[in-house]
Amino acid sequence: MKRFFACLLALSMVLCLCACGPASQHEDSSGKRTITDSKNRQVQVPQKVESIVCVGVGALRYSCYLGAQDLVVGVEDYEKKPTMSRLYNYVNFEAFSKLPAIGGNGDPYVEEIINISPQVIVMSSYAKIDPDDLQKKTGIPVVVVPGSDTTLDDSAYETIRLLGELYSRESRARELTDYLKGIEADLQKRISGIKEHPSVYVGGVSFKGAHGFEGTEAHYGPFRLIGANNLADTTGQSGAFNIDLEQVLQWDPDVIFLDFNGMKLIQEDYAKNPGFYNSLTAVKEGRVYSQISFRSSASNLETALADAYYAAVVLYPDAFSDVDIETKTGEIFQMLLGSNPYPDLKEAGYEFRALSLGKEQL
Q1: Which residue has the higher pLDDT, 208 or 290?
Q2: Residue 361 has what pLDDT?
Q3: Torsion of Cα atoms, 147 then 311 then 321 then 341, to 10°
Q4: What is the pLDDT of residue 214?
Q5: Across-strand partners of 33?
């Protein structure tokens, strides 16, 4: 009888071990796991992702936010040119400049990707190719992420979550999400009791290239975060567009912000038509301030958040009296980029400050 029970116990242990199966429901016998991407595609990827390329605006940017720039083995051609307009590129340029070009702004070089053989292609929804087609042509799994062309929308948070899962950096994704949610909560708490909202106009906004004073944006991301009274929102337009300057004159905004990307064009126009600008109350009374360009190949989240805080410091000085903009900007940059390039921006003239038309040299 004892021998019978011993055999029965041994058999039960064997059956239990067999029933356990793979270590994870997402992992198969080959060591792969399945990711559900933003297109609801089921994509098999390695259990540990060690090499990637990014296709389409936003994919590389958000990968850098996750601290995954060390996985990148090729970049799109425009990333091989140094720029301060995309700070993730600026702080990682030494490494990116040495990598092969694997595409041009969402248009992948299929043969080059095959040659360097990354484990995964991370593709943003802004890319110009079908992900299944790219996956078929390269034989490499393609994971699509939403990316974002504004500030803290659902697409931004979903991109962070999905990349955290793909790179097995869930703790970093949670840290980043908690920090960004904290930013939103801080801004909302500070503006919640404000009843007087000055009218605001932003000019020089970049879209498909640089624009002058007429380049503005409805639902401008930094303004939306702080509940600013953006006059462009009253036009019925959405996104960035050129406005009739006579409309701005009629509005006569209380405060004007100017995007540094458009400053050269604005200064050239000011030299030709100073009367127009000097008739604006905000110009006459010295209420013109900077915005550091946050849109370059879609939105650069860290710069947009810093822009929001600076605009809030200007518009709501009492509610933001304890905020030192240089310190806050450095904190945001450090959290998202892993370093603080604001001193470099400041040295180059791209700092948060009051502007004097006719005297700016950018």
Answers
A1: 290
A2: 54
A3: 60
A4: 97
A5: 27, 45
**Taking 50 as the threshold, does the pLDDT of residue 246 lie above it?**
yes
Half-sphere exposure of 262 (CA within 13 A, CB side): 26
Would you tell me how many other CB atoms lie within 10 Å of the CB of residue 105?
A: 15
Cα 202 to Cα 223: distance, rounded to the nearest angstrom: 9
d(CA 73, CA 96): 9
The count of C-alpha atoms lying within 13 angstroms of the C-alpha of 284, restricted to the half-sphere facing its C-beta, is 10
By C-alpha distance, which of 270, 289, 267, 290 is closest to 279?
Answer: 270
Mean pLDDT of 281-297: 95
Contacts 24+ apart (CB under 8 A), 170-173: 172/66, 172/67, 173/66
The pLDDT, as a whole number, for residue 27 is: 53
User: 343 to each of 261, 292, 340, 362, how far by Cα in Å?
Assistant: 18, 13, 7, 17
What pLDDT was estimated at residue 105? 85
Q: Give the E-state strand segments of 178-283 in sequence order.
A: 199-203, 215-218, 229-230, 239-242, 255-259
Closest CA to 200 of 266, 269, 254, 258: 254
Cα separation of the two ends of the chain: 93
Q: Tell me what the mean pLDDT of segment 29-41 comes to.
A: 90
Going by C-alpha positions, the residue among 188, 356, 185 that lies closest to residue 285 is: 356
Looking at the predicted structure, is the pLDDT value of residue 17 above 50?
A: no
Owner of token pair 């029970």:
5
Structure tokens at 303: 């710069």
DSSP state of 27: B
Q: Record the tokens describing residue 354, joined without a space.
A: 């009051």
Number of residues that this document lists for the chain: 362
- pLDDT above 80 (res 187): yes
Q: What Rg value do the Cα atoms of the chain yield, rounded?
A: 25
Name which of 21-35, 121-135, 224-238 the model is least confident about.
21-35
**Residue-wise DSSP of 69-99:** GGGEEEEEGGGGS--SSSHHHHHHHHHHTTS
The helices-and-strands tally (H runs, E runs) of the chain is: 15, 14
| Residue listed under structure tokens 């958000």 | 62
C-alpha neighbours within 13 Å on the C-beta side of residue 337: 23
